[in-house]
Amino acid sequence: PTPGIRVTLHSDANSENKIGFVPSGETGSDGTFTLSTGAPGNGAPPGNYIVTFEKPEIAPAQQTDYIETEIDVFQGKYSNPQQSTFRITVERGENTFSPFEID
Length: 103
Description:
By secondary structure, the chain is an all-beta fold. It has strands at 6-11, 24-26, 47-54, 56-58, 70-72, 87-90.
């Protein structure tokens, strides 16, 4: 488990349920996460989703002219929904998914 990974759900274009929300959450020290869609911890609407991952970090100040800038430690490897191989279906109520395996 890796803490601090941003998990984002993107509505699957092939889904019958076109969701206009982009639920997201951040992994804790045990690798679990809670999704939010607007209000903190309110979850994700039921539907089919493509899952993306980012590991946000603040770039070294010298590289950004001392302007605080967030970078993705994974360098975009898992952040493009069109290239993601991770798919899930969210049902009504509490959902538990198998761990996502990323390098």
